[in-house]
Amino acid sequence: MPPHPRPHTALVVLAIILIGINLRPAFSSVSPLLADIRLSLGLSSSTAGLLTTLPVALLGLFAPVASWLAKRYGAEKLLVPLLLLLAAGLAIRGIWNTASLFLGTSMAGISIGLLGILLPSVIKREFPQHPDLMTGVYTMALCLGTALAAGLAVPLLHTVGSLPLALALWSLPALVTAWLWWPLRRLGDYPVRSTQQANSTSLLHDATAWQVTLFMATQSALAYCVFGWLPTILQDRGITAADSGLLLSGSVMMQVISALLVPWLCSLMRNQKIMNQLMFIVIYIGLMGAIYAPIEQSWLWMVLLGLGQGGGFAMALTMIVLRTRTPAQAAQLSAMSQGLGYILASLGPLLMGFMHEASGHWHNAGWLITAIVLAGLYHGNRAGAQRFVLEN
């Protein structure tokens, strides 16, 4: 028996929310400043594309490491070291040269990838009765962190007057969260609330696991195209850097609404097919409008884009907890869907950068977006069927 009483549920919820807030500023704090970063360091479009692609690829490459570490040490014990690694990576970006920028971004990407893979299993374990709703809360926190970083990136730069410092200061919230999580590091020592046994069979031969993975990959590809390139696209269309950051921030704030609402609505449905597909349709309308419609309508399209992306990401995470029966299966599916999914998703912003460098404009971006959305509609329908992994 543990020597101390189990922490109050509200404290666990708060700690998960705080971790969620820290999982996207490494990305969204860069995109409104990407033009300034390229100018300062002399980066080409393809190199800048690698800056947005590298952390996404690392999210996937380190997924197997997350599973091994969780089995050896326990997910809860790993969160503080990973938050410290995240803070160090963000701080290193303040050493202003190309190598340190990529090194710090890589460290942040590894940490975020491991944290994002471990948390669904913690949620499944601690909230077995309502994993979908708690996943919505976690996704809401993640969207809130994204919005804050996107909206504050340019004002923070103007306030501190230094591009390296403006990027490095995002290490402070990660340090605070590590300090707050420290009392909860032994949460995994308490008896597991679920009595179901784990099934250690590999998911790589399971069709349902692959559908969840490809659903995660397609919605993530669109998300990182937005985080990596949409502010630059808007700036090339005549919108200021500050306004492009505000547009992205406002769009992500809409994600907070749908991240909470969509999983709740799905809890009332027989399956998640329609909702998964609806989110892709809303994303497509919003993204195409933001790229091609008159810039005077930008707020309308960004609101739609945000509602679709918040709901889409929440559904991708919800599929992990709804398609599994045990926390161990949730950890397996989380590692597979986010690991392979993010590796595939990293091709989205990379291809968009290459297409821009080859053509000198963004007109062809719509073809790439359309292809990703069509794939997402198919896999979202298959992943939304009411069934579980490792069941014939």
From TrEMBL:
The keyword DNA-binding does not apply. InterPro entries: MFS, MFS_Cyanate_Porter, MFS_trans_sf. Keywords: Membrane, Transmembrane, Transmembrane helix. It holds the Pfam family MFS_1. Gene3D superfamilies: MFS general substrate transporter like domains. The chain crosses the membrane at residues 44-66, 78-96, 102-123, 135-157, 163-184, 212-234, 246-266, 278-295, 301-322, 334-355, 361-378. It comes from the Bacteria. PANTHER family: 2-NITROIMIDAZOLE TRANSPORTER, PTHR23523. This is CynX/NimT family MFS transporter.
